[in-house]
Every structure is written in C-alpha cells, then in structure tokens.
Write a structure and sequence with these properties.
Layout (H helix, E strand, L loop, with lengths): L10 E5 L2 E4 L5 E6 L2 E6 L8 E5 L3 E2 L10 H5 L3 E2 L2 E3 L2 E3 L2 E4 L6 E3 L21 E3 L5 E3 L14 E2 L2 H6 L6 H8 L1 H4 L2 H7 L2 H11 L2 H5 L28 E6 L3 E9 L5 E6 L4 E2 L12 H8 L2 H11 L4 E10 L12 E10 L2 E2 L2 H10 L7 E6 L5 H8 L13 E6 L6 E5 L1 H7 L2
Antiparallel strand pairs: 1-5, 2-3, 3-4, 5-10, 6-7, 6-14, 8-9, 11-12, 12-13, 15-22, 15-23, 16-17, 16-19, 17-18, 19-20, 20-21, 23-24
C-alpha cells in the first residue's frame, strides 16, 4: 500500500473482511481487500483487527516473529506461496501478538466480536506499550518502521527505499534548529520550507534531489488495496507491466533558455556515466545514450512548448530482473510522459512515443471495462502471454482512459511464484 508520499508501506493495520474454507483441516483463508492469506483455522473472525505484512517484506529476527517456526524456515521473508492449492500473498497476525490493545466503543467497535458499527462510529484504534496510537484508516495505520520491516531483497531497500530530499538533508545537518517548535511550524508550509532552505540549505542538497516539481516517483498502487475501483465501469487503457527497473528522464528550462537534464532511477539522480549503480553497469545512462534521449526529450520540450517534461520508463533485459525478456540487451519501454507533475493521457503518451520513435509499453486493450471480482481480473491478466517475447506476462497496469491520472496495477500471482518467490 502506498502512503501519502507515494512510497510503499509493507506493514499496516487492516480489518479481516471474509473467511473462506480450504482443503485443509487446520487452515482457512482470510481476505483483506483483494489479498488472500492462509491462516490457522479459528485464528481470526470477520471484523477482527490485524496487522498485514505485504509480499516482499523482510521481518526482523525478533519477537514475536523469531518464535514462529514457519517464518524461520523462510528466513523471515514474506513471498507469494501456494499452500494446499491456495495462493497466499502476505502474512496476517493478530494485533495482540505485539502486546497492543484494541480500544472499543467510541471508535466504532462493540466489545464482543469486534463488530463494526458502521459509518456513524469513529474508526477503531490500537495502542502499543509506549502509548502510540494506530488507526485502521489514514497514515497512522502504517507500522512498517515501527516493527522494523524492510524489503526482502536487499537491493530493493536501496532502489525503492525513501531517498532523502533537499529539506531532509538540510534538517539532518541542523538537528537542534529543526527540533524547535517554530521550525517545525515553518516546515509544514511550502513557503516556510523554501524560506528555511534559503537560510540553511546548500547547493549540494538541491543538486541530487528528486525533481518532484516535474514528476512524482513511479510506485503504482495494487488493485488489491483499492477494491472499490472494480465498481468503476468507465473505460481503462490496459498496458502490459514490464518487469524491470524504473527510470525517469527529465528536462526543464532554466535561466536564459538553458536546459537542465536529469537521469534518475526510482530514487536517485544520476549525473555521470560512471556513477555507482545498482547493477553491473549504469543501465540508466546506458539507455540515455543508446536511444539518444537528450535529443528526443529536448525536441519534445520545444515542440510542445513545455516548461519541463519527464519520460518515465521501465529499463529491462539481461541482468535487470530474473525475467530477461529473451534479450541480452538493456531495453526501455515508456509508460508515462509528465509535465509539471501532471501525466499525459495514455493515448497522447503513445502518440508522442510513436512520433519520436520511443519504445513504449505494449497496449493490450484501449477500452477495457473492469470486471466485478478480483478473480475475473486475475483470469484476464493471465489469459495471454507477454507481447514482448510471447512468454509469461508479469501483469497489467490500468489507466483511466479520459485523463490517465488514475491508475493501478495487477501483478499475476503465478508470475510472482515463478520469478519472485
């Protein structure tokens, strides 16, 4: 699930929405949004609060995890797995396993059975031993850092982890100042942050900061975390999700017409070809050169008279992920074109890519209506192979056809079992 900063959270409070039987005497399936988790029979009932750990999580070797034998056997990694014919995605644990207390009554839960009282009641909340409050809605539901959860893939902790922006770097250098009440008050306001940076910031803070005024980072929410969207019967553009590494190429006009360029991974701005990378070579600068992206993005900037523009793409191929798409090269596929933080509609993105010879993600259906259930959506995603090489497809990203501003993904559980388990 993504937080307000568009960063993925790996652990958060949830409510058990349904329980279904399995072909096993001691096991059953708990449902949280569109996720299915195999749990012990009778461990949960509908309405129970719980802590959900997403796939890709690495749990710390501490209590209560360290005493759970099945987690030890997996080295405390949470991955998709098939148990008695049921695909289980994630780990579900009772709130009480952490010594936390659920408060009832005024927050909308009856003391018996955890029954939800409906929209007229406030949300329930949990309190830990230090008195910290966690709710089942909003930002306070997230407990990733509180419980010490990281990505199971060490490389993902670098590639996908939060990168400090210029304001964070500034505050880290002046901790005593930024603890003061007046400083915290200023930092909550955009004009205040700019004022503080004027006095306390440095050029080096800004140089490699992600240019968020041009484009946001590229994490995409999973449809399992936004099940309400299945009721939305507007047309969507369905594009193939390519399993690679996120890359953003940006350009913006500066003073006297000078154009500044950025070559970025998901979190890091690369400005030199020999800059250290997450792979054996700097694949981001490689595609920058291979596809002549400086010339192309400059032409787009000028032809469309834009103040700035970003090409957001997936870099894929040999050595990037386990799935190499049957190539020994590194290739790219554009999925967003953005200016001033606003994404172009998908049909315009494809039109621009084809006009300037930019490879783009394959389009599967440009007028898709979402089905009523997650099972039907999975069947659709897995019904055809990749358009790139005819082998297994990772998933589909769906964009609302009208604006392209609402989008989400469904990754095939079978693909995760084969390539990411």
């Amino acid at each position: 699930m993504l937080n307000k900063n568009n960063e993925r959270e790996l652990a958060y409070l949830v409510r058990v929405e349904a329980i279904t039987p399995m072909n096993a005497d001691r096991l059953e399936c708990a449902h949280i949004g569109g996720w299915h988790c195999v749990v012990g029979k009778g461990e949960f009932k509908v309405g129970d609060p719980a802590v959900y750990f997403e796939i890709d999580s690495q749990l710390p070797d501490v209590e209560p995890f360290s005493s759970m034998e099945f987690l030890k056997s997996k080295n405390f990694k949470i991955k998709s797995q098939k148990i008695r014919g049921e695909i289980s995605q994630g780990l579900l644990m009772p709130v009480t396993a952490f010594g936390w207390e659920i408060k009832y009554g005024q927050f909308g839960w009856e003391s018996e059975g955890y029954a939800f009282l409906g929209d007229n009641g406030d949300e329930p909340y949990a309190i830990d031993q230090q008195g910290a409050v966690y709710t089942l809605e909003g930002e306070s539901r997230f407990v990733t850092q509180r419980l010490g959860v990281t990505y199971a893939d060490p490389g993902d902790n670098i590639r996908k982890g939060s990168a400090p922006d210029k304001y964070k770097k500034m505050s880290q250098r002046h901790p005593n100042i930024f603890k003061k009440k007046w400083a915290r008050w200023l930092m909550k306001r955009e004009w205040g942050r700019k004022l503080m940076f004027f006095f306390f910031g440095k050029k080096r803070d800004k140089k490699n900061a992600w240019p968020s005024h041009i484009a946001a980072k590229t994490d995409v929410e999973r449809v399992q975390n936004m099940m309400w969207v299945l009721n939305d019967k507007q047309p969507y553009v369905a594009s193939e999700k390519v399993d690679g590494s996120s890359c953003s190429i940006m350009a913006e006009r500066g003073r006297f017409g000078k154009i500044k360029y950025y070559v970025c991974s998901r979190n890091v701005v690369f400005d030199k070809e020999d800059a250290p990378c997450f792979y054996e070579s700097n694949i981001y600068m490689e595609v920058w050169n291979k596809y002549n992206l400086q010339s192309i993005i400059t032409t787009i900037l000028n032809d469309y008279n834009l103040p700035n523009v970003a090409l957001q793409m997936e870099v894929y191929g040999s050595g990037v992920q386990k799935r190499d798409y049957s190539t020994n090269e590194h290739k790219m596929a554009v999925f967003h074109i953005v200016s001033n933080g606003k994404k172009f509609p998908m049909d315009q993105t494809i039109e621009i890519c084809e006009k300037y010879g930019l490879p783009h993600v394959p389009i599967i259906n440009d007028n898709y209506i979402l089905p009523d259930t997650i099972e039907e959506l999975q069947a659709y995603v897995e019904s055809a192979p990749s358009k790139i090489d005819g082998k297994m497809k990772e998933g589909i990203v769906f964009y609302d056809k009208a604006t392209g501003q609402q989008y989400f993904k469904f990754v095939s559980p079978e693909y995760l079992l084969k390539f990411h388990s």
